[in-house]
Design brief:
Layout: H1 6-18, H2 22-25, H3 27-40, E1 48-53, H4 59-67, E2 70-77, H5 80-89, E3 95-99, E4 112-118, H6 127-135, E5 138-149, H7 155-158, H8 171-180, E6 184-195, H9 199-207, H10 225-228, E7 235-246
Parallel strand pairs: 1-2, 1-4, 2-3, 4-5
Antiparallel strand pairs: 5-7, 6-7
Helix pairs in contact: 3-4
């Protein structure tokens, strides 16, 4: 049995339910992952050991594997149904796909030249401490590279007082954590607005990628469809932060 806390179990369940349709509805996540890889590429060293945190169905991991020259690639997630798809997608012997929680990596986990994570670390229980802990798993010149939604994401839903329970982090707070811990950080942000035919299609785009779990809602009455379906929400903003972090200057 895998021991996860209550909130991680709920997150795992939402992504397990969406695993069968995730690939068909995750074009924005794939674009974000591809852009993150472009940012990492100039720093990549051949024969690296890489880990992808929150790999999901492995669709971005496969892009990473095709793009990087590596000795070994690890891919972890907490959603077993997604992992099963990832294993079918990447049967190579030097790609190791397994269950693990990036907030609590096993003590015997190797050090990595690249710790990569696309649109996953915002699900961390303690993202600031997790970032610091992950950098301790880097090789001497290794890099932590990740993308996450930052403040301004889904403001269309926030304006209706929904989703505000899971506020998106400010990029400045991550840079502050890095500075306080002697880490070197480069960051970028990029905003994309997706358009939809109706509120139903807008909400369905989130559900089909599993990103529906929130710890609590501001008001019990605002429970998604029963409230939001009466609103006209035809767009969703993704404000994405990209971060490259090392223990030595970049």
């Amino acid at each position: 049995m895998h021991n996860l806390n209550y909130h991680k179990e709920k997150i795992k369940n939402t992504f397990n339910r969406a695993s069968h349709c995730y690939d068909d509805h995750a074009s924005i996540q794939q674009q974000i992952g591809f852009h993150l890889q472009e940012l990492v590429q100039p720093y990549h060293r051949p024969n690296s050991t890489i880990i992808d945190l929150g790999c999901g169905t492995g669709i971005t991991t496969q892009q990473l594997a095709n793009r990087m020259i590596f000795r070994e690639l690890h891919a972890i997630d907490i959603a077993e149904s997604s992992l099963a798809i990832a294993k079918q997608r990447m049967p190579q012997s030097n790609i190791k796909i397994y269950f693990s929680d990036f907030d609590h990596l096993p003590a015997d986990t190797s050090h990595f030249d690249l710790i990569f994570s696309n649109m996953a670390l915002h699900w961390s229980d303690h993202i600031h401490s997790t970032i610091v802990t992950l950098t301790k798993r880097l090789t001497l010149s290794g890099m932590l590279a990740f993308s996450i939604p930052i403040n301004g994401t889904f403001h269309e839903l926030l304006s209706h007082n929904f989703y505000s329970c899971r506020t998106f982090i400010h990029a400045t707070s991550i840079k502050k954590t890095c500075a306080q811990n002697g880490l070197f950080c480069k960051s970028w942000s990029k905003k994309t607005v997706l358009q939809f035919k109706s509120t139903h299609h807008t909400l369905r785009s989130i559900k089909n990628t599993g990103a529906t779990y929130v710890n609590k809602k501001n008001h019990k009455g605002l429970v998604g469809k029963s409230f939001l379906m009466h609103k006209k929400i035809h767009s969703l903003t993704y404000n994405i932060g990209y971060f490259l972090i090392r223990t030595s200057p970049l």
